């Protein structure tokens, strides 16, 4: 029989009603930097039933070995019960955002076993246009030092004015390494899919989420959530044709023409 009980939130010392017959669902967003994961997470967090806790494993200490990774995961998935990040609703999904270069690949066996044991649902978020991802990576790396926004570095912005300022920097891409770099990106995505193939998972692409709002409804269904309109204040930084965003466009265009990556030259996202 479903019943209500009160769970004391340690941080705020307030009572929270929770439906005991509707357990919290755990999830993890597995992605690469500059693939739309920050934007996607803000969309999820706009849902009243979702608490996604960011890049927990950006802190090296939390991923130094398999034991520290699993201990950190236990801490993250207990947050719903132990601190004020909880959302006061009966249905809930608790998760985190995890970049592939933050210990995930090194400890994939232990993590996959943990996900299956704890019934963690995995959301893979990739970017189809890897050339645009490369532009975003290089520009973001440059701004860490240049700090174009009044001496402040921002990986994500909330206004068109800020986006315009950041997008004025046009990175130069090493065309001699470009094909190998794109292949490496593809292989890394394929490898993580192989490692976590036996988990309950869903594969998403940034471009599809942008073009098709129904994709967000499918995500909510995957997480067992009631459908709500999801929103984000984040503004896309690099808009328009790539020819206007890359300093050595002619070299890049020549390198990719006639290859399997030629479509990257024209794609909007």
Automatic annotation (TrEMBL):
Keywords in alphabetical order: Hydrolase, Signal, Transferase
Superkingdom of this protein's organism: Eukaryota
InterPro entries: Nod_factor_sulfotransferase, P-loop_NTPase, Sulfotransferase_dom
Keyword Transferase tagged: yes
Record's keyword annotation contains Signal: yes
A single MF term (Gene Ontology): hydrolase activity
Family: Belongs to the sulfotransferase 1 family.
Protein name as annotated: Sulfotransferase
Organism of origin: Lupinus albus
């Amino acid at each position: 029989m479903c019943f209500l009980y009160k769970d004391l939130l340690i941080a705020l010392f307030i009572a929270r009603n929770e439906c005991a017959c509707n357990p919290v669902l755990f999830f993890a967003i597995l992605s690469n930097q500059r693939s739309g994961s920050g934007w996607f997470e803000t969309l999820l967090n706009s849902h009243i039933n979702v608490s996604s806790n960011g890049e927990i494993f950006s802190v090296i200490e939390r991923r130094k070995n398999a034991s520290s990774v699993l201990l950190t995961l236990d801490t993250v998935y207990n947050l719903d019960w132990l601190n004020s990040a909880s959302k006061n609703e009966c249905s809930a999904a608790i998760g985190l955002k995890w970049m592939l270069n933050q210990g995930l690949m090194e400890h994939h066996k232990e993590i996959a076993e943990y996900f299956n044991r704890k019934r963690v649902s995995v959301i893979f978020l990739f970017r189809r246009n890897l050339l645009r991802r490369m532009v975003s990576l290089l520009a973001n790396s440059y701004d860490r030092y240049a700090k174009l926004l009044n001496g402040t570095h921002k990986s994500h912005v909330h206004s068109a004015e800020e986006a315009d300022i950041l997008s004025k920097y046009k990175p130069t891409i090493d065309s001699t390494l470009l094909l190998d770099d794109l292949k490496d990106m593809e292989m890394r995505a394929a490898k993580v899919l192989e490692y976590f193939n036996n988990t309950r998972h869903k594969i998403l692409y940034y471009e599809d989420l942008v073009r098709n709002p129904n994709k967000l409804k499918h995500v909510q269904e995957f997480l067992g959530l009631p459908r709500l309109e999801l929103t984000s204040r984040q503004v896309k930084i690099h808009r328009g044709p790539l020819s206007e965003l890359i300093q050595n466009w002619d070299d890049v265009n020549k390198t990719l023409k006639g290859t399997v990556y030629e479509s990257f030259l024209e794609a909007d996202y």
